[in-house]
Amino acid sequence: MNWNEHLPALILIIPLFGAFIAPVCSLGGKTARNILLVAISFLTLIVAFMLWRHVLANGISYYVMGGDKFNLSLPSGMALPVRIILEVDAFSAFMALCGAIVSFAGALFSVNYMNRFTGMGRFVSLYCLLTAGMIGMMVTGDIFNFFIFIEISSIASFGLIAFWRDKPTAIEASFKYALISQVGSMFILIAAGALYGRYNMLNMAAIGSVLKMGSMEKLVLVFLVGSLAMKCGTFPMHMWLPDAYAEAPTGVTCLLVAVSQASLYGLMRVCFSIYGATMGSSFIPWMLIVFGLASMFFGVSMAVVQHEIKRLMGYHSVSQVGYMLLGLGVGLLVLDDARAMADYGFTAIKGGVFHIFNYTMYKALLFLTAGAIYYATGKKDLNEMGGLARRMPYTTFMFVIAAAAISGLPPFNGFVSKLLIYESSFAVHPFLAVVALVTSVLTLASFVKVFQTAFLGPEKSSLAKVQEVPAAMLIGMVVLTAAILGASLFPSWTLSTLVEPAARALVDQSGYIGAILGGGM
Amino acid sequence: MRPLSVVVRTGCDIFAWFLVIFGASIIIHGDVTPGGGFQGGAVVATFISLLLVAYGGKKVLSWVRLNIFNSLLVFGLMLFFLLGIMGFPNSFFYNFLAIPHEVVQASGHGVIPPSGTIALMDIAVGIEVAGGLSLIVLSMFRGIRIFREGPMEEELGHDR
Description:
The complex is a heterodimer of chains A (521) and B (160).
Chain A: H1 7-25, H2 30-58, E1 61-64, E2 85-88, H3 90-113, H4 120-139, H5 143-161, H6 168-199, H7 204-210, H8 215-231, H9 240-247, H10 250-275, H11 283-304, H12 309-333, H13 338-377, H14 388-391, H15 393-407, H16 413-428, H17 430-455, H18 471-489, H19 491-507, H20 509-517
Antiparallel strand pairs in A: 1-2
Helix pairs in contact in A: 1-2, 1-4, 2-3, 2-4, 3-4, 3-10, 3-13, 3-18, 3-19, 4-5, 4-10, 5-6, 5-10, 6-8, 6-9, 7-10, 7-20, 8-10, 9-10, 9-12, 10-12, 10-13, 11-12, 11-17, 12-13, 12-16, 12-17, 13-15, 13-16, 13-18, 13-19, 15-17, 15-18, 16-17
Chain B: H1 6-28, H2 37-55, H3 57-63, H4 66-85, H5 101-107, H6 117-149
Helix pairs in contact in B: 1-2, 2-3, 2-6, 4-6
């Protein structure tokens, strides 16, 4: 049998296997458990990479769960696809690759970081489950399954955010997230149910092929966009995000960044692949743009005043998600206007997609450096830190790279994606680009503040015994640094190989539908 | 939680076992009747909650060993996973035991159509849910005790 055909299933099977076997493996002691965690996430990364290569070479790959053959999407002459179908186009594969890289880095980091704590068997189990849920959201081609995977990843993250259950703040953060995310999930379930009631099917491609805008479809669209925008932390619905990110163990925070991107993926899949050109009005695109602008500006202005390091980065997550919403919203705005699309729309989508990659890498790295500082010093408050650059040179180096990338300083990858977004959103209205630029400047200001207070300045006497963090944590950070530097040093290669196929797959609605329905419709 | 009166405890002694049998019946007939692995497993897990209510936590926690539920959980999950993997040359979760409808009709056997791996997966899920929900009930009970009687075990590692 040809394993390449089974890659979409394997990428789910491997982390699920890890989650199921973890309680047994943790009987074998710490080493066995740590090896399991790292091995599972590494295997996931390998499979994600192979899947991405496979999709780039052979086009959209889909997989029928439990079918007689892996590619029998319409068994015995049926007009509609009936089974659970995974559909992986270049955009899904790109997202799964990002998620797998971050999951691997977070797993490596957690090996040392979580060494002191009890209950690690459950931690490994939930971590693998969260990875499986996240990747499931990215590869599924079925809207009900999307809901299932959202639930899997939410429930795993409730457990992981409240992992330190004797900390009241952690319980509070987890409870807040649980409440808000359950309300959001119920909206997604209602939307899936409404679509099923209307069209008798749940497959995204099949729904996309027959969808006609009516009041029910509008309601469904609002439910899906609202709840998924909440799950990825856009401005008016962001209040769970800084709490959850600050209170989760750091390796998990790093993975949560990728999980929020999976929700963004779902949002884009709904807007571009299910609705696409049939959306017919510019209301939802403008809504995304306004969400994006508000998240960018208010997120960063709340971040500037924070002095707890992980909470500050949490607010920056809110602001960075705004960039992607802006880029992808501009792309969605001109989706049915071929000339504007070629002129600036596709650039905006490329910028948004590239920013997803960049954001996932540097934000995960920033959270890991914050975790490394906490591990080494035991402090979270910036006011109590100082002069760490001499004590932790490697962490400092990687923090500088990540901070420069998130602020969009020229040689780094953040600059490339932000530039693409600036120049394309400028064509819609200069105001959009102005807000994006101001946000970028404020981001730089707040990271200069973090760098100056934590790493530079006189050494505090309370920090005299601080040492560099252990090797596994450093390697976890190096993985992400390498990804950032790779994308920074070879921007044109990254754009043409990694980003452009993903952006092209995102706008190609008929390709997404045709892969499942055989191109006939 | 203190034990309830002798009437309740005797009632529990008589009826608790029937819950397990009823749950097992739902699990085993999961593929042909309403219900299935999850529902049957949940009924089986009410056994533990009934004991907790009737006999009180101190006694029940001294009777049960959490590792047994843990191994039920893992065994069920692994069985389910294995059944999924075994469909592999065709696809993940492929029903490799199913007998086509024409063959069943020609053979003249069986009123109930054989469902292949679905029945086995129901049993796997039933075992898993029975273990998992019992574990959840016991853990939640221990959680109540943490608040009422102070921590039962030390949490290691971090500063509060």
